[in-house]
Design brief:
Helix content is about 60%, strand content about 15%. The longest helix is centred in the C-terminal third of the chain and has 67 residues, at about 340-405. The strands form three sheets. Strands 2-5-7-8 form a four-stranded antiparallel sheet. By secondary structure, it is an alpha+beta fold. It starts with about 30 loop residues before the first strand and ends with a helix. The protein has helices spanning about 35-45, 50-70, 130-135, 135-195, 200-235, 250-255, 270-290, 340-405, 415-445, and strands at about 30-35, 75-85, 90-95, 105-110, 115-125, 245, 295-310, 325-335. The protein has two domains: about 10-70 and about 125-295 and about 340-445, Outer membrane efflux proteins (OEP), CATH 1.20.1600; about 75-125 and about 300-335.
């Protein structure tokens, strides 16, 4: 009853064994008793991929604030003090000062100290690229938030698969225990028959070999389940020292419940498609941004400063003169020619938009394929599950009848060994069918956006 290597691909990710419930819990160990919905909710809060996606949303909020800041007035203060260690010197005709004609006087211009302080203000009145950035803010937040939902859905699907596979493993272990009990009873009965001369020592040895094989198989399965629990904790972001108990049950009725409904499917039910549509919208904003970069920009600038000059450093002395300097500027910048660079950017943005649209169409095709494939797999898995359940019951009935014949001396050891092997095979096939049906159900629900 050991699942195939393919079916254990998820279980090898996971956490603690079923029998951990009976162990002593350390003081710092928390016990979590989770339904599958609670396990998904825990993973949505603690899985590192989801946490990073949520941080991307917060980061986008700050990027939007940065873009918005460009539309607000930009105000700055400034101040400076200049010490002119060497004043500039110019030559002037000496005769201007009563000197000898043809000679020159050296004149130093300026003062040793200068100081300025004031305020500068800039207000962007119109810039097409900033305007587009303001328009795109909500879409950018929606895009980041939708990425969170896509990430959460992927984690959710894996949690569902692993959770229910571990629940199915309970049935697998129960069947192993049942087989071990049957073989122990058979070994006991064979020993009695041997003591009374109706069986051979070889018959007892054969049963002992089968029993040892089952015990070994059970040990291996328990180890795989233990590793499965560890992996589930990692996926959920749960500390490995915590105890995880799964409270949901799984059976054929639960697996087939409310899956193949007649509701009409719409691509917008899939988070990935919603994400792709937001990507298209962002590409359209890119085109708009580059187009508006051809439009003139208008800005208003102004400053108000105080200025003083001194031959002595006495700027903080009261009563000294400070002079006002101020100006207001309305500037218009008109793009005329930049070597067709803007046209090239627009063309690149249009190509990127078309690629995104192509990807969205390919996604629709993939979704159609996922739904059809998942539906076919689910129907096949349910039919196989029903068949294997009936076959397991029949194999158990054959084993019980063969065992009775053997006990009354009308059956052979070969017959009962064959019946036990057939029962074990039927049980293995039933467990595999439950694994396959569980995975098929989760895949179908995810494909139709109903998970």
């Amino acid at each position: 009853m050991k699942p195939t290597r393919k079916q254990w691909w998820v279980l090898t990710l996971l956490s603690l064994p079923l029998f951990i419930q009976a162990q002593v819990v350390p003081v710092d160990q928390k016990i979590h008793q989770f339904t599958v919905a609670q396990a998904v909710a825990y993973a949505s809060k603690n899985n590192v991929q989801v946490k990073n996606a949520l941080l991307d949303v917060q980061n986008q909020v700050q990027v939007n604030r940065e873009v918005t800041g460009n539309a607000y007035p930009q105000i700055s203060g400034s101040g400076s003090i200049v010490y002119n260690a060497k004043l500039p010197v110019m030559l002037a005709p000496a005769e201007m000062f009563g000197g000898t004609p043809g000679t020159f006087e050296k004149l130093a211009f300026g003062v040793k100290y200068g100081a300025t302080y004031g305020l500068n203000a800039n207000q962007l009145l119109f810039d097409g690229q900033v305007f587009t950035g303001l328009q795109a803010r909500k879409t950018l937040i929606d895009f980041a938030q939708k990425n969170v939902e896509v990430t959460e859905e992927a984690i959710k699907a894996n949690v569902y698969k692993i959770y229910y596979q571990l629940v199915v493993s309970k049935t697998q272990i129960e069947l192993l225990d049942s087989n071990i009990s049957l073989l122990n009873k058979l070994k006991h009965d064979t020993k009695i028959m041997y003591d009374n001369g109706f069986a051979e020592k070889l018959d007892i040895n054969k049963v002992s070999v089968q029993l040892a094989n089952l015990e070994t198989e059970k040990t291996n399965v328990l180890t795989q389940v233990a590793n499965g629990y560890l992996g589930l904790k990692v996926l959920m972001g749960m500390p490995l020292n915590d105890s995880l108990l799964l409270t949901d049950e799984i059976n054929a009725d639960v697996i087939r419940q409310d899956v193949l409904s007649a509701s009409v499917f719409d691509y917008s039910q899939r988070k990935e498609y919603q994400y792709a549509q937001l990507g298209i919208k962002l590409n359209e904003y890119d085109i708009q941004r580059y187009k508006l970069s051809k439009v003139p920009t208008l800005a208003l600038n102004g400053y108000y400063n105080k200025n003083a000059q001194r031959n002595e450093f006495n700027f903080f002395k009261s009563g000294e003169d400070w002079f006002d300097i101020s100006a207001i500027t309305l500037s218009l910048n008109i793009p005329i020619f930049n070597g067709f660079a803007t046209n090239a950017r627009i063309s690149q943005a249009r190509i990127a938009l078309q690629k995104t649209k192509n990807q969205a169409e390919a996604l629709k095709l993939n979704i159609d394929n996922e739904i059809s494939t998942a539906r076919n797999n689910y129907i096949t898995a349910i039919n196989s599950l029903d068949y294997q359940k009936q076959n397991m019951a029949l194999a158990d009935e054959v084993f019980q009848q063969t065992k009775k014949k053997y006990e009354v001396g009308t059956g052979s050891q070969t017959e009962i060994n064959t019946a036990q092997t057939d029962l074990k095979t039927a049980q293995t096939n039933y467990i595999n069918a439950m694994y396959n049906a569980t995975i098929a159900k989760v895949d179908y629900l995810k494909a139709t956006g109903k998970l």
